[in-house]
């Protein structure tokens, strides 16, 4: 069964709506690394990853109870658990661990590779054949961002933080692709809510066993605010629009919008976290926007 939340809109209108929803989500997600950096000032990366999912799980339970949502079927539950490997565990934990060892500007490299990771898993799941030009432009966009990081000397020798980032990218791409597929058969907001609720007992057990609650007593308003943002926006409400965008616009297509996330994150780092700004960043950003436009154009040819 296929779920459709917008049965009367035209293909072009649906594509445009999907892009707008995707951009809204990308903006929200672009704040994840900066807020993670703030949270790990007093918490460990593992604690941030677990606590954001724990708090998000409580909110998701309340939403599902208010909406009187029916339980997912067996096949959906299996996919929800599979997607959780990236969305509930992989990206939240590994990206937070990375923020303990690398700066936000360095961590933004994850945002260059994530669209390719999501698109590859998405194409694998949907069995859709994308034109060669789509993959060429996707790779060009990713290489532009990687080249930018190399040229600005933010990419140094391989460190533990880079390994965490690589794991976060792979698992997040897998989780996003699973979410996009699930959003074809159930509302996107229910996908993330059920992921959080189904994993809540596991997250609760891990939190009780692994979180040093003395760290929580050390948290100031800024740390609490950062954790609440990660739980509510990065880990829950941001996925409402993101999952719907993936379902409406296609996983491979919408995932390319994440290329812009790197520079949104960089902008936040420059404006609010004391990072250096340069003309090179602006030029590369414009080039990346151009590659995103080209991937959108080529992907729509097979939509």
Automatic annotation (TrEMBL):
Residue ranges crossing the lipid bilayer per the database entry: 50-68, 80-98, 104-125, 132-151, 157-177, 189-211, 223-242, 249-271, 277-293
Keyword Transferase: no
Annotated InterPro entries: AA-Vitamin_Transporters, EamA_dom, EmrE-like
Superkingdom, natural source: Bacteria
Localisation per UniProt entry: Membrane
Alphabetical keyword list: Membrane, Transmembrane, Transmembrane helix
The name this protein goes by in its record: EamA/RhaT family transporter
Species annotation: Faucicola osloensis
